[in-house]
């Protein structure tokens, strides 16, 4: 799929959602879709969207910008403090969701979300799932 094809498909998907055309979601979402690492299948995805539309009836899906996105996985041993946590050489695993916006062929903007809760759970500072 080319960049232009991907962008067109994504725009059509968001238009479908904004128009509440849930009968068309299967044109854009795989039957065996996973959400947040859990297989929920297309029917579960539609139920999730239906719930979201009930809870936020005026939601619209507006593209602010299109970027390259990646989910990076780390398994490492930070020394001392890391992200404000006392890791002190313990091995931790976590993921980062990062978006890169390019301008003139170079990265211009980066938006990063690191799963700090996963690190906290491994350190015993917070209960929760570990990636």
General description of the model:
The protein has about 130 residues and is an alpha+beta fold. Helices cover about 30% and strands about 30% of the residues. It has helices at about 5-20, 40-55, 115-125, and strands at about 35, 40, 70-75, 80, 85, 90-105, 105-115. A three-stranded antiparallel sheet has the order 3-6-7, with helices on one face. Strands 1-2 form a two-stranded antiparallel ribbon. A hairpin with a 2-residue loop joins strand 6 and strand 7 (about 105-115). The two termini are about 30 Å apart.
Quickly describe the structure.
This protein has 131 residues and is of the alpha+beta class. It is 30% helix and 29% strand.
Structural class of the helices, strands and pairings?
A: alpha+beta
How far apart the termini lie comes to 29 Å
Work out the radius of gyration: 19 Å
State the order of secondary-structure elements, H for helix, E for strand. HEEHEEEEEH
Biggest sheet, spatial arrangement of strands: 3-6-7
Output the number of helix runs.
3
Largest sheet: 3 strands, antiparallel
Task: Please report which band the strand proportion falls in: under 5%, 5-15%, 15-25%, 25-35%, 35-45% or over 45%.
Answer: 25-35%
Number of strands: 7
Q: Compute the average pLDDT.
A: 89
Q: Please state the overall shape, judged from the principal axes of the Cα atoms.
A: globular
The stretches of 5 or more residues where confidence is low (pLDDT under 50) are: none
Helix content: 25-40%
